[in-house]
Amino acid sequence: MNAFEITGGIKLKGEITPQGAKNEALQILSAVLLTEKKVTISNIPDIKDVNKLIELLGDLGVTVERINKDTYTFEAKNIDLNFFESDTFKAKGGGLRGSIMIVGPLLARFGKAAIPKPGGDKIGRRRLDTHFIGFEKLGAKFVYDSKKAFFNVDATNLKGAYILLDEASVTGTANIVMAAVLAKGTTTIYNAACEPYLQQLCKMLNRMGAKISGIGSNLLTIEGVSVLGGTEHRMLPDMIEIGSFIGMAAMTESEITIKNVCYDELGVIPEVFRKLGIKLERRGDDIYVPSQKHYEIDTFIDGSILTIADSPWPGFTPDLLSIVLVVATQAKGNVLIHQKMFESRLFFVDKLIDMGAQIILCDPHRATVNGIDKKYKLRGISMTSPDIRAGVSLLIAALSAEGKSTIYNIEQIERGYQDIDTRLRALGAQIKRVNADAPSH
């Protein structure tokens, strides 16, 4: 098993460029199945979840060509629908949560699809109901085989429909949009997710010949077309990486410039970090974070303790709450972190408490952080990464801590962050990859 060994307490300095957005990639790559024409996609992150999906597309019969490190062409001319019945598909599809995203395009173009129950992070239940209720409204019929944990879907006659989503699911909205673009008639999706990544998908589909209006709002209207063509698409930088690097700079008192961030697509993210007292400047399309000895958490106007909670876009993304929590441990002041969407994402705080942080875990969704204002440093410990975002939060804590930390199960971190150790070393971090068995407890 690979682990990261980190010697903390070192100020970092320099420039870092965020990778392409993981959560956009899973949607955009699935959309190549909607056409037999060539689609060129650039700024693709070189991470495990994305590479697994590209491999799965190849297994399905998509001609995949890598042009350079982050650019590929895809041609879904000869799709092998029998691949669904293979053990290979069951194994690969079941091990990748993003594999659910290929269902919508396959239903739209071929009228049928199958998918094993997807895997992914252990951060609580992640329902797929939104996806399948949406497909059902469009006329699809599906059967779930509970013994094999497998979904079979028949959609030989998709028709446009009015769909009111029970939750503004990003992947659910994307999947339904991809199914609807080739359905007969008009589809209206209300309570649609409106994240920048979903906007990117809709703009790409429109360039391919789809007719989607209302992009950027929670009310999408899709006029079905009979066929889609090819296009070129460049993915946005990963906003979760950008937020992670802002937090890392603050925790380690580092002067860092984050390059090419597509600032206008970041929504409230910079403002939330400012509420923690972190200074950051927009410089063109870069974010400059100066070295800062102390940062103080705001209160609400009436003086009560600040609450930072996740909510659907344009609210604050749940993927950055664990970063905010870690950063708050070294701030001056108090904050309540409220993780509404997932019930197990705060369970990593026991590791931070072991490092010396003052945190009360109120329940599975809420934690109160008492910032210690850097009166003493966190101390390095050995710990295991439970999921992608908690793993990076622990990595940031380790970079700021006194002494050596070891993080096991870094495969979880590498599912979402490309070459993270190499890129941090370029800023001066003391981080190295080692082979080590995780502790048994």
From TrEMBL:
Pfam families: EPSP_synthase. It is an enzyme of class 2 (transferase). Phosphoenolpyruvate binds at residues 22-23. This is UDP-N-acetylglucosamine 1-carboxyvinyltransferase. It catalyses: phosphoenolpyruvate + UDP-N-acetyl-alpha-D-glucosamine = UDP-N-acetyl-3-O-(1-carboxyvinyl)-alpha-D-glucosamine + phosphate. GO terms for cellular component: cytoplasm. Keywords: Cell cycle, Cell division, Cell shape, Cell wall biogenesis/degradation, Cytoplasm, Peptidoglycan synthesis, Transferase. The active site is at 121 (proton donor). It comes from Pedobacter ginsenosidimutans. Cell wall formation. Adds enolpyruvyl to UDP-N-acetylglucosamine. One of its GO terms (biological process) is UDP-N-acetylgalactosamine biosynthetic process. Belongs to the EPSP synthase family. MurA subfamily. The gene is murA.
